[in-house]
Design brief:
alpha/beta; TIM Barrel; eight-stranded parallel beta barrel; three-stranded mixed sheet; globular; Glycosyl_Hydrolase_39; GH
């Protein structure tokens, strides 16, 4: 699956007073038809995309689907398969933030309503980068609740992951063959000195928390103590073990040059740059979860020479091929995102209006060098990769082939399936 994405982050800053809406500042609300033209120009058939939650979900049981109806009908007409991103770093004002204990239940209702309205959609990322969202919102103090303590972090994390699982349950009730592609940041922490080894080990355990809980995997003993010390109850922890939907998932992971960190003896960290690289870090995640892999995000700035992003694309693609060649089932690759982005250089925690040249196209919708290179890469490799193994073909139905009767006939109790998960392995 060769993919791109249309960035739909919408966290709040300034203690909830200011909304950062990337679809707005990148011009998507006005130029969405042009954006879909750009997707097709590259030859891409898969698009990470979702409705703006704060404009769509107006209250309990109250929705404005006007924009979604327009754009998703057009995606269907063009036979672009969406990987629907339902929650990307923010919630509507009326929900508050990720400290709200009602968020999982409320989000599950929203996910169910979306799946009911768009039954032909099969691929979902219910909640994007749960770990990063919890860290930036409740550990670094950058977004949403803007907290900076372990208890707030654990609270945000458990609510995000529970919402993701409950959302999957509601979607599966309506589309029994739905496939969930996690988009989670893949991290690694390098010790700067022997005195930093202990802290690095803790952080390297912590990086797995969101996916451990999401996939019903028992966390490491140190992390179990950490969770319970910071507000998670045993009953809450056991809920994650009892609701295991791993069999419906693809391990989507994101990798940027900032995903590796150097840890110092006093505990502070700095970016380490590309040290291990995508293939080595993905191997660590794959060995832990044993799921098919999709590279769901990467990018790099187009610098003064104009070929910096092109070189990064080639390097990431080489890493993807390396994974496949050593037997790790890798089913997709994504350059994120379609167009340049605004204020990514400050992780969206400031509204400066800085345009960051990260996209396949600039904000005038003119193709960048990396867009031309990605188009050629797709043309070169599209018909080569499937021949390697039929086992690497994901059971995706074409957008136009959906039949409502398939789900009506299934008659499955997905909630019961989740509770009986351990017996299924």
């Amino acid at each position: 699956m060769f993919a791109t994405g249309i960035e739909n982050s919408y966290p709040t800053i300034n203690h909830g007073k200011t909304r950062v809406d990337e679809m707005e500042v990148c011009g998507h609300y006005d130029r969405w038809r042009e954006d879909f033209d750009c997707v097709q120009e590259i030859g891409i058939n898969y698009l990470r995309y979702g409705p703006p939650i704060h404009k769509t979900w107006l209250g309990p049981g109250k929705f404005d689907w006007e924009f979604s109806d327009l754009v998703f009908a057009d995606l269907k007409r063009r036979e672009i398969t969406p990987i629907v991103d339902l929650c990307h770093f923010g919630v509507p004002d009326w929900v508050g933030n990720f400290q709200n204990p009602d968020f999982p239940r409320l989000f599950a209702d929203y996910a169910g309503e979306f799946a009911e309205r768009f039954p032909w959609v099969q691929l979902y990322t219910p909640i994007n980068e749960m770990f990063i969202c919890a860290v930036f919102s409740a550990k670094y103090g950058w977004w949403n609740e803007q907290k900076k303590d372990d208890r707030s972090f654990v609270t945000a994390l458990k609510h995000l992951v529970k919402a993701n699982i409950m959302g999957m349950i509601e979607i599966l009730k309506r589309r029994h063959d739905a496939i969930f592609i996690q988009s989670e940041s893949s991290e690694y922490y390098h010790a700067d000195s022997p005195a930093a080894i202990g802290r690095a080990e803790v952080l390297n355990q912590m990086r797995f928390l969101s996916l451990d809980l999401n996939y019903g995997r028992r966390v490491d003993s140190g992390m179990y103590q950490y969770l319970l010390d910071n507000g998670m109850t045993r009953e809450e922890y056991e809920w994650f073990l009892d609701h295991r939907l791993k069999q419906h998932c693809i391990l989507g992971n994101d990798y940027y040059a900032l995903n590796e960190h150097r840890v110092f003896a006093d505990g502070h960290t700095v970016a380490a740059g590309e040290t291990f690289g995508y293939s080595e870090i993905t191997r660590q995640y794959y060995n832990r979860y044993r799921l098919p892999v999709m590279h769901t995000e990467t990018n790099l700035w187009e610098g003064p020479h104009g070929d910096e992003a092109v070189k990064w694309l080639w390097k990431e693609w080489a890493n993807v091929l390396r994974l496949r060649n050593v037997g790790i089932p890798t089913v997709g690759f994504t350059w994120y995102s379609l167009t340049d982005q605004v204020d990514w250089d400050t992780a969206l925690r400031e509204k400066n209006g800085n345009v960051n040249p990260l996209g396949l196209f600039d904000l005038d919708r003119k193709i960048r060098n990396v867009g031309k290179a990605y188009k050629q890469l797709i043309a070169d490799w599209r018909n080569v990769l499937p021949a390697q193994s039929v086992c690497l073909v994901v059971p995706i139905k074409k957008v136009g082939d959906y039949d409502q009767g398939d789900d009506d006939a299934a008659g499955r109790d997905i909630a019961g399936e989740a509770n009986a998960n351990e017996a299924q392995g």
